[in-house]
Amino acid sequence: MRTIEPAISLRGDLRVPGDKSISHRALLLGALADGVSEIRGLGRSADTMSTAAAMRALGAGVELDLDEDVIRVTGVGLRGLTPPAGPVDCGNAGTLMRLISGILVGQEGRFELIGDASLSGRPQERIARPLREMGASIETVDGHAPITIVGGPLRPIRYELPVASAQVKSAVLLAGLFAAEGPTVVVEPQATRDHTERMLKAAGVRVTRVGTAISVWPPERLEPFSIDVPGDFSSAAPFLLAAALVPGSELRLHGVDVNPTRIGFLHVLERMGARISVYNRRVVGGEPVADIEILSSDLVATQIEAAEVPLLVDELPMFAVAAACAHGVSIVTGADELRAKETDRIDTVVQALRALGVRITELPDGFRVHGVPARLRGGVVRSAGDHRIAMLGAIAGLISKEGVRIDDAEAVAVSFPAFFDLLDSVAAR
Ligand code: S3P
After folding, report:
1. Same structural domain, 56 and 162
2. Which ligand 1 atom is at minimum distance from the Cα of 196?
């Protein structure tokens, strides 16, 4: 249990940890490269450490140089991963389980993937189905982990994603690296994060995008790379939210990844009336990066529909808090995918905000919030072990009258172990 007291304002400059999606991918691709790759600024969290441990278990070298904040990955070559004695434990990390499946189907041997209770409840046939179509031997247990994979020859497919998911897209594109020929094509119903495509290109792979279709050709080898991981927009989001809501706030976040497929929440906050400037734009690690300044302001309600959802899928819990403090009724629809996250995030968001006195209604594919432009009452938020719900509770606490107690606040370590320390460093009480 951790209590977050109301804040008077948030002020200052900060830097959030390296992007989680990019960190996972850098470890995975580094392990497949011919030689040593260097990853600077990797976002160290329970999730990315699961990926580091998995790659070690599969035979790659992963060495942390804490002084220099560099991780050196000694790759084993495209087809060089070897089965460990036991299962590969993916912990809480859905990205690891989905992406590594697309890699292991191209390796030699039999692999088993397991996860924690939350991950073991999440759907995995979404990746198993297209991989089977490519000729892979991959089995789930009633659609869930444990996943068993026996590597073998693969053929290219053209796959129309039934759900907009970067994890499913990435699993198929990664399997395409091992196909007998190219291209393996994935068609997206809506644009999703494109970090895999960018990083494959940086490692020398032929990847193209025409409209909504992404194609990949199997390479001879992957070049080792050196990457600076930019700040995680999803970790910046709670700070942006807090500064927008708490009167008198003024925050600057430096070196944040502003990849257009990630910053839907920034555009939504702007639409609601937030005062945001994005400046000092540059390219880091093949990704667009910038500094973001945000000042507090009154917010008005808005609507979010399916097309926008993938661009802020992990920020929808934060959006619910913004909506609770905005003038008017906000509605999210087309967000069924929230039910397949670390928790059923439609349910956990609705429970969390209701417990704080917010008028929020659950919809089959989203939620409706009756906002009141005032401080929230406060109360107790149960994270249910979900890092994003714990962060929701924290920001709600800052903008509350009575403070918020968070049950299982430690869940933040899944993506952002230093979250509360960083929050304390900018929040005046
Ligand atoms: C991620 C993709 C998203 C996101 C997750 C990370 C990724 O999941 O929610 O936190 O790194 O590819 P889906 O692809 O299932 O939407």
Report:
1. yes
2. 12
- Could you tell me the two tokens for 146? 């444990």
- For atom 11 of ligand 1, the residue with the nearest CA is 21
pLDDT single digits (tens) 102-123: 999 999 999 999 999 999 999 9
Beta-bridge partner residues of 290: 256
- Does the Cβ of 23 fall within 6 Å of ligand 1? no
**300, 321: one domain:** yes
**Domain hosting residue 271, numbered range:** 2-16+230-428
> Is 193 a pocket residue for ligand 1 (Cβ < 6 Å)?
yes
Distance from Cα 333 to the centre of ligand 1, integer Å: 18
Span 257-277, mean pLDDT?
98
Do residues 247 and 370 both lie within one domain?
A: yes
CA 133 to ligand 1 center in whole angstroms: 22
314 is annotated as an active-site residue: yes
Confidence label for 70 from pLDDT (cuts 50, 70 and 90): very high
382-401 pLDDT, tens digit per residue, is 999 999 999 999 999 999 99
Dihedral of the alpha carbons of 208, 210, 215, 221, in degrees to the nearest 10: 0
Residue 66 has pLDDT above 90, yes or no: no
Buried b (16+ CB within 10 A) or exposed e, 354-377: ebbebebeeeebbbbbebbeebbe
Q: Which of 116, 232, 314, 408 is catalytic?
A: 314
End-to-end, the C-alpha distance of the chain in Å comes to: 19
Task: Point out the ligand 1 atom lying closest to the alpha carbon of residue 99.
Answer: 12
User: How many domains does the structure of the chain reveal?
Assistant: 2
Whether residues 359 and 392 share a domain: the answer is: yes
Boundary of a domain, candidates 189, 223, 257? 223
Task: Based on the fold, state whether residues 244 and 383 are members of the same structural domain.
Answer: yes
Answer for the pair 12, 426: CB distance below 8 angstroms, yes or no.
yes
Same domain, 193 and 99: yes
Q: Which of 193, 223, 253 is the last residue of a domain?
A: 223
CB of 311 within 6 A of ligand 1: the answer is no
